[in-house]
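Let us work through a complete example step by step.
Step 1: write down the sequence.
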Amino acid sequence: MDYVVRPVRAEEWQRTREIRLAALRDPAAPIAFLETYEHALAQPDVFWQERTAGAAVGEHVRQFIAEAPGGQWAGTVSVLVERPAGEPGFGEAAEVDQAHLVAVFVRPEHRGRGLVDALFREAVDWAWSLTGPPLERVRLYVHEANARAEASYRRFGFVPTGRTLLMEGDPAALELEFEIRR
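Step 2: predict the structure and record it as tokens.
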């Protein structure tokens, strides 16, 4: 694989914005992301600058990208650190020290090349390397109808926990929690 997987840099906010907008235009976006293209597009530059700066050096969030040989950002994943003493995580307050993978996206023309696995390896390795109380698990949620994403997550080693959440905006649908334990 000729891709480079690395954390974003603070000065790359415009590229961070571009790949997020591309993700939100993907046909799977309505069941994969809790944000709309229109909402993200309306955000001012300062929003993207602060978001990228925080994800570049933060201890509570880190964004990784997969860069293709020509320089295009082919994929991305973000890691949120959730601690029991911190703010509630996605769905509920953290019961254990954990990380949460969000905003997983690989451009269609780069799929099937192992990029999800490469992004997850970097994200999980980063989570396990954090100082402080060790994280016990890395989790993510997937929409019950997103079979393609679920297959990728299972292939990497994520297993279902049995926990579910109602899908924001569609209470008839479920988000399924998957995890990898340390």
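Step 3: interpret the result. The mean pLDDT is 93.
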